[in-house]
Amino acid sequence: MTTYKLLIDGQMVDGDAVMDVINPATEEVLAQCPRASKAQLDKAVAAAKAAFPAWSRTSPAERKKALNAIADIVEANAAELGRLLTQEQGKPLKDAIGEAYGLAAFCRYFTSMDLPRKVLEDSEGRKVETLRKPLGVIGAIVPWNFPLILIGLKLPAALLAGNTVVLKPAPTTPLTTLRLAELIKDVLPPGVLNVITDANDLGAAMTAHPDVRKISFTGSSATGKKVMAGAAETLKRITLELGGNDAGIVLDDVNPKTAAQGIFDGAFQNSGQVCIAMKRLYVHESIYDEMCDELAALASASVVGDGLEQGTQIGPLQNRMQFDKVKEIIEDARKHGTVMAGGAGPEKGFFIRPTIVRDITDGTRLVDEEQFGPVLPVIKYSDPEDALVRANASPYGLGGSVWSSDVDRAIGFAERMDAGTVWVNKHIDLAPHIPFGGAKQSGIGVEMGEEGLAEFTQLQVINIAR
Ligand code: NAD
Questions:
Q1: pLDDT digits (tens, 9 = 90+) for 114-128
Q2: Is the pLDDT of residue 343 over 80?
Q3: Using CA atoms, how far apart are residues 412 and 417, in angstroms rounded to an integer?
């Protein structure tokens, strides 16, 4: 069995304890993984703090060179990283390899960015400039649905701005991150990047740590609230990328035959375990039956299985807790709607076949909660204004989409959706130059793009007398 180690101060070290990592497709132990102690977290933060002064003084060109080197290594090892990601996370191999290439692309994208000084005023009375300075030690906390690409939303921007990082993956998907750390460790001076793993017990200590200046957190809204509370004592900067319950609104001028595939992909990618997956679909009554039938046909035809098997489109749920939760939500939905397609998958493993539930409405668990699994409620409406009100009634506001053959009409609804990103005639489309963040309880702040990079900095004003 491969051994995995933590990265602390440039060294690969054992954890003070170990824990099992389960392959969700087989329910068997995939590997043992180190589990850091609180003392090891403190060492990682101390190493990052010690590395900060020198790293923050390196030139942007030097940091960009490091990001390009990381991208080269990730690309050269994408097949290995992808295979490991599939085994610990469950997603189909081609998606996992794609995620590794995505991380490389994000690293490269940030090499095209700069944080220039800006002159706000240069007059007889004064000269005023702003600069963007690094913050210090960044605590980066990642969930289990996209272990690699979510590093891409944090690490390149943090490093480019001149910060040092302590990175913590989710307890059920630590291996790819640890292997990545081993592969890239020599690109960066010791302490600039540290990777620790836990059993869900170090996040709070990271968040409260006096030497961590910012927490860049991706995870559930429930944990995000704990992060915000934990960061209050030291008034840390926080970026929170949290849960969602994205609505799709399908207007009456849509052809269900042509739109169904895009809607299906927007809901079922990564077995529905995407923060910005479509999690409720509002369909006009005139096309409701046809849309339900098209979606159910796609659900029944999809290939569910171990992500390592060729042809698999839908892998298992990532962990038993999520598997049990989604099964429970489906059982509850049976009482309130009609289950058209779906059911259990292969015998072993955390599999659930893509499930479509029709004749269901708001006020039920499946519609109101974040199901985070391969089950989509399809809700009938007669008045699009009413559909918009219901879409906006959620405490979440991450993403949303409007589907129509009349793009201007769709934009008219999109602009009134209370969400950080709204797509027209598609759902789920992110890129490193497009800022991403949630409204309401889906988050605070943004990642990616110029705005995302700025969040890894402290704005400073220099105001000179003339
Ligand atoms: P989670 O909140 O349970 O865990 C996320 C991370 O937080 C893990 O690394 C976990 O160990 C850590 N953690 C646990 N307790 C902590 C604490 N008290 N303080 C700090 N960190 C702590 O989320 P999950 O179940 O792993 O992930 C699924 C959730 O993530 C969904 O709600 C999904 O929508 C959300 N998500 C959001 C985005 C986004 O960009 N908005 C992206 C992906 C996933």
A1: 999 999 999 999 999
A2: no
A3: 9
**Mean pLDDT over residues 282-297, rounded?**
98
- Are the beta carbons of 276 and 429 closer than 8 angstroms? no
Which domains does the chain show, CATH number per domain?
A: 6-242+442-465 (3.40.605.10), 246-431 (3.40.309.10)
- The model carries a pTM of 0.97
Angle between helices 256-268 and 288-301 (to 10 degrees): 50
Does residue 244 register a pLDDT over 80? yes
Closest alpha carbon to 94 in 72, 74, 78, 109: 78
Nearest CA to 230 among 152, 145, 139?
A: 139
Rounded alpha-carbon distances, angstroms, from residue 30 to 22, 56, 149, 167, 314: 5, 38, 22, 22, 20
Closest residue by Cα to residue 294 from 358, 359, 249: 358
Q: How many CA atoms lie within 13 A of 251 on its CB side?
A: 20
Q: What's the gap in Å between 124 CA and the centre of ligand 1?
A: 52
Which of the listed residues 275, 319, 372 should we mutate to test ligand 1's pocket, taking the one with most ligand atoms within 8 A of CB? 275
For ligand 1, is residue 409 a contact (CB within 6 Å)? no
In the numeric block, the tokens 């999109």 are attached to: 414
